């Protein structure tokens, strides 16, 4: 075919960010999803321009599409098709189209991005100059070779031999700025022929994603890979994305090691800005490695002792970062059933010893106040270290267990929906008589429940036999909060992690303080709702008054005795939940009393306001800390740290080990077209269990391969 007999249409992409071009073209019909889509984007573009078919394709720039020449029978129809398409494209994507009809070409440029260089252009310093030229080289897809770089000058040229592009930047006399002295701004080379770019370094990746990492610390490396490809048309490795994010996080928040070294000063600042707070850090060994951190703000201590119900939840969450650790928390519950964190600790590992230490610190925190409080109820998982620590430091407290594990064990053991429903009815039963009737029902269905009850005595899970007051709490609400904190903070240094938690607590105190000031009722909304339900049910009962304080409440099912002075009902709901039950409401209404006034004080709006009456004061930035603890440095947990190299941190988002295997498309050696398959090396149990093959990737683009892969319309 003689191409001279056909018209030609040239699309010049020079000066236009190839990443945006790829993204735009991928929106056209026939888009194929996948990481290697430049070839199909060219295919789609040519199909649109040439009316659905083409005769010859000459790819000059390969996969990076520096320029493409299309030869077809009728140039006029091709030009008209291209002009119409670019017109629509311009309207949809705010692109500027300049018609160079004299040489039968259309030039596309992005009006929103300026990659031009001019003589006399100034930069604040040489580092800014380097970054700017590197960004331009990546955007325009050419390799930059640095000829000279020192304190007074910066000289760079295009890496392609024979290309005249060159820039000379020198320091301005008397000022720190640099300016362009000489510039040859025209490229005669075809630029980078593949998606990989020498200037796309880890530092460049870090700068590119810094804002997104600031907004979202959970920004994943695989998302960084895709976003950089979409926005810049550059392929970076998983390692580069991982390291780039790590470097960006370090620039924003400091390193993990610096966080540990700052802990003594941070604790001092907490004690200084929030007098009465407890903040202490403990190290161990000759290397002074971190072991434990304990923090409790005075505002939390005051709120729990003076206004919260006497109930504490204990739980932990494992931290997965460069340095492993465990986050421990003791949380109370406010009047409106919201969690109220009292004390937070980070320890090197979860152990019986660390739980014993945490409970001893909690005991010191509460001090003699526990003697003046109602009997404390502590809820936790059924774990030997916690059980022993509670018995040692809170011997008079009632220790209850979270029913999640116990109920799951019962469900998995019997796999009977009817049995499970009766089990929960037994859990909620308030009296021993009701409980025994439910047990009898279960035994009638299956005799196998009898051995199970021996392994899980009712004292561990049944309300009727628990010697304390749960206030209706059967599972640990603090678990979800801890896992949320662990997820949000595991990539932050330890000081930044504690600051994140402190800021959230400060926000909660402020929001709830303002909310409490708006309430005008006697009880908080959640308690108010339950009291109104009890009053509504009370109208169904017959009330017989025995004396000034005792009442007999008669219903079709049973008769209950209510003592309004002792705030006791024979159904036990008033005692166990702290709010008048329907029987008590009936007795109080009959004698003209307001049932709202007989709720426990911990459910009142006054108590709620008192809970959040104190403030958590801000901690100044680390730049303003006095270095009074220079000699008490705490190093990272060297003995249990994750490797700094991400290839060994599979579960933390770092890349898994991969062994690369090259195979031909036909499966035999000698083919000119290759595909890349890799085997992920898992643990011994999963060895060779996962093999993934990706699409063909060509670092070069011979015309024959290009035509073969693209002319399939």
From TrEMBL:
Keywords: Metal-binding, Zinc, Zinc-finger. Residues 551-592 form the SWIM-type domain. GO terms for molecular function: zinc ion binding. It holds the Pfam family SWIM. PANTHER family: OS01G0595300 PROTEIN, POLYPROTEIN, PUTATIVE-RELATED. This is SWIM-type domain-containing protein. It comes from Vitis vinifera (Grape).
